[in-house]
């Protein structure tokens, strides 16, 4: 699962017509995703005041977090004042309507042509894992054996591409797939299996190791991350309230995973500690430099301390700390940034907008600034930078050139583009336009 986690990413099918006012982004945490009439907002404020809950801005969205004991009273009060809400229980109902526990059988085994000799793997429906395909090379032609209808993935230094084997006439062809679609299809052809949950030593929580849930659709994985809490000691563990275990069991059953109790117990004592700020020196310099560069363009100044950064503008200053939590939170003049947000341009942009508004900094285009300063440290970075340049090329070719040439990015992009031309990798991006941008740079 990607570290660039957005709890609302997979709610696109939940709101086919009108978005509700609030959405339960995490268990007992409610975020405003649609406007609320001022008279209803006043009533909502009174309800929260009665429950002694103070709303905050989380990733630039109005958010409130309640105690477990206040959840039912809060939801009942919302219905009374006409504010609509999409809860995690509602989300589970949507998921179980989309995923059906039937098994789609694979077809016969065939020898197929492979476009390259990179690492090729096929999905194993029995173990829900990926097994290497033994590829052979005969007269420069690469082939391998797999079943019709199966999902394949090809891993290279630039990333992973997914395919499905389909029959076209008498030939077996590889049809490219997005990762999300590939994992959904894998769950359809997967055979029933069993996963185990463990109780904590006090019997107060149910714990699941997410790494044991092989090849789970992103929609299901996201739901589990939203419903449970991350264990601070072991980030792969998800800690659920006992009352939510049936909900977890229901959602997993729709992808043919039977949830059973393990005889083992886990000690979660150390996981209850609050988040500790990450030392600024421990953060990747390239990611941090983006923050400094854009703040400088907006006219802000910053002071780097051991566990925080103080950013100043004409309206004062804010203290920025970094945590390994999944959410970024603004609390007065303190901004706690999720370390994973530094790898996601959209989340990074929201944080910068928050700083700009709070300090009254210059109104520069964050989309342009981020694209120009964004480093290429992995395949996701490369895809973002290249797509940004392609998007700007028709209206501002000079800007497109600047985006891919800044911060020593051009050599990496050229190498990637050459591999596409040689047929070693594939891309859904407009590589023709990319070639035009590279040609302009080379002619300067």
How would you describe this structure to a colleague?
It is a single chain. The protein is an alpha+beta fold and about 450 residues long. The chain folds into five domains: about 20-85, Alpha-Beta Plaits (2-Layer Sandwich), CATH 3.30.70; about 110-190, no CATH class; about 195-270, no CATH class; about 280-370; about 375-444, no CATH class. Helix content is about 35%, strand content about 30%. The protein contains 13 helices and 23 strands. It has helices at about 40-50, 70-80, 90-100, 180-190, 220-225, 245-255, 285-295, 345-360, 365-375, 380-395, 395-405, 410-420, 430-444; strands at about 20-25, 30, 55-60, 60-65, 85, 110-115, 120-125, 130, 135-140, 140-145, 150-155, 160-170, 170-175, 195-200, 205-210, 230, 235-240, 255-265, 300-305, 310-315, 315-325, 330, 335-340. α7 packs antiparallel against α9. It starts with about 20 loop residues before the first strand and ends with a helix.
Which percent range describes the beta-strand content? 25-35%
Q: Describe the biggest sheet? A: 10 strands, mixed
Q: What portion of residues is helical?
A: 25-40%
How would you describe the shape? globular
Structural class: alpha+beta
**Distance between the terminal alpha carbons, to the nearest Å?**
41 Å
């Amino acid at each position: 699962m990607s570290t660039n986690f957005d709890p609302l990413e997979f709610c696109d099918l939940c709101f086919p017509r009108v978005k509700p006012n609030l959405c339960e982004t995490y268990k007992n945490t409610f975020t405003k995703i649609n406007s609320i009439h001022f008279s209803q907002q006043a009533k909502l404020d009174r309800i929260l005041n009665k429950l002694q809950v103070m709303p905050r801005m989380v990733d630039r969205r109005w958010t409130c977090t309640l105690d477990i004991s206040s959840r039912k009273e809060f939801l009942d009060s919302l219905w009374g004042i006409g504010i609509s809400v999409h809860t995690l229980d509602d989300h589970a109902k949507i998921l179980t309507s989309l995923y059906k526990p039937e098994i789609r059988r694979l077809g016969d085994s065939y020898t197929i042509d492979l476009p390259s000799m990179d690492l090729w793997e096929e999905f194993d429906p029995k173990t829900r894992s990926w097994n290497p395909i033994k590829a052979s090379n005969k007269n420069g032609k690469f082939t391998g054996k797999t079943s019709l209808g199966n999902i394949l993935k090809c891993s290279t230094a630039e990333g992973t591409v997914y395919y499905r084997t389909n029959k076209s006439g008498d030939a077996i062809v590889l049809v490219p797939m997005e990762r999300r679609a590939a994992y959904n299809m894998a769950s359809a052809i997967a055979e029933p299996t069993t996963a185990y949950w463990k109780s904590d030593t006090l019997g107060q929580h149910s714990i699941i190791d997410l790494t044991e849930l092989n090849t789970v659709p992103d929609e299901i994985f996201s739901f589990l991350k939203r419903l449970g809490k991350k264990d601070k000691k072991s980030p792969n563990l998800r800690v659920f309230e006992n009352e939510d275990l049936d909900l977890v069991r229901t959602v997993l059953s729709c992808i043919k995973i039977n949830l059973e109790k393990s005889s083992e117990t886990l000690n979660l004592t150390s996981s209850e500690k609050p988040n500790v700020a990450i030392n600024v020196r421990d953060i990747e310099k390239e990611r941090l430099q983006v923050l400094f560069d854009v703040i400088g363009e907006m006219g802000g100044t910053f002071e780097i301390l051991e566990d925080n950064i103080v950013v100043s503008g004409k309206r004062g200053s804010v203290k920025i700390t970094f945590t390994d939590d999944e959410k970024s939170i603004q609390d007065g003049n303190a901004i706690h940034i999720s370390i994973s947000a530094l790898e996601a341009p959209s989340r990074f942009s929201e944080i910068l907008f928050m700083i700009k508004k709070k300090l009254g900094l210059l109104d520069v285009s964050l989309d342009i600034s981020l694209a120009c300063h964004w480093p290429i440290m992995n395949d996701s970075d490369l895809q973002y930078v290249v797509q940004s340049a392609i998007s700007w090329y028709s209206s501002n070719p000079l800007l497109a050139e600047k985006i891919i040439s800044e911060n020593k990015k051009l050599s990496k992009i050229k190498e990637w583009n050459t591999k596409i031309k040689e047929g070693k990798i594939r891309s859904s991006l407009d590589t023709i336009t990319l070639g035009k941008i590279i040609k302009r740079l080379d002619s300067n």
